[in-house]
SDR family oxidoreductase
Amino acid sequence: MRVLVIGATGYVGTRLVPRLLEEDHAVRCLVRSPERLARTGFADRVEVVRGSVPDPVATGAACRGADAVVHLVHSMDGPDFADRDRAAARAVATAAAAGGVRRIVYLGGLQPAGAADGGDTSAHLGSRHEVGEILLAGPVPTAVLQAGIVVGRGSASFEMIRHLAETVFGGPPVLPLPDQAWNRVQPIAVDDVLHWITACLGLAPEVDRAFDVGGPEALSYVELLRGYAREAGLARALTVPVPVAAPRLGARAVEALTPVDRALAGPLLESMAYDLVCRESDLSSLVGDPPGGPTPYREAVRRALAEDGSAGPAATDPAGSGPPALTGRHVEEVEAPAEVLWSVVAGLGGDEGWHTVPGAWELRQRLDGLVGGVGLRRGRPARLEPGAPLDWWRVEEVEPGSALALRAETRLPGVARLRMTVEPTGTGTSRYTQTVTFRPRGLAGRVYWYAQKPGHDLVFGVMARMIAFAAERRATQPTRPNGAAQPAGTR
């Protein structure tokens, strides 16, 4: 089939398009930013139409000649998202009918009981229901898939669960949560979502309705946090319900503790006021279940965590996807050749020191020794290689001439890493990039990071600048008879 995907650069879209291509469908993508599509890795295998969905000209051109349309656009990045989603749905319904499309598949959201009959719901869920109704009212047969929380790395809902669990479990032994956290939802693995979408492309023309899709379990939001915590090896906490519901305040807290933007977190938190569970499973009898059956929640979490270990975040994943990490970076343009700059980086530690504020790291390491850490262990290995100790660091990676990665062995409420890279920028010039990454362990880890951040920025900023200065000084020093430059001698 020739399938038009609207929302191909979003979380589900970037995973759906490769699957459609693997199944030998011809794929066309309507996108506002071809540049963003280029980062997906499949842009050269699809037909690209540039434009936004509400634009009738662009949407009409994209639908013309397509057999099916998969509509994945959700505008939750501002207060007028419902208006924009409504306009997009009408444009798609009109263009699909005019373009000869034979099937529309729309990914919406599970609805609270009674919402279809005018019952209470959130703005977010109400908008999803309205979009489905607009598409179903059109002449093109439509399958509206109503799904709950999608579990997979990069999903906004899953990343919110991940970062909240990583923050609060391993923090206080008693965790107060709003009583809405005991409402139930039916999560679904992203692989199962992809199965249902692609399977619906082959539905008979007379099938024109909404379907509930979900995993095999209906769980409370507390159980989602606990399930993630168990799979991630986090400590357990006693959860206590608090009869307070403040979505706006909660959205600010989520924004502070997770990479999910407040404009997105707010509508998601409002939906917690309702039980969101499947009331039927009719689609299974029409197209069959995913291979092996619907995926249990903890298995879906395991797959997401395994994806963390197998590769870094995809280029199209939202910022902050993957394990929580806090970073600090310093970049210096250096008036010295890359090989000279590398000689300074490779010589750090031991008697040479770390080129930073005098006494700062010595004090930090003496304090570490008092609490049972490695303390002021000084010295360099005979050879700089992975696994070798370097003062209070452990070498994790060495790319001679270009990169050195270290892991701190001090006592910290988390894991700290330091990566230093060297790259040539011209004749006799180079660039030094110094990145500190801290993966906090529980709430204590985040408190530690932000409490010491001003001093951290000073110490590491001085270090970056002084490493650059040492390289520039070394590049201008006279060489010894054997051709080596005199040592910089800076601690």
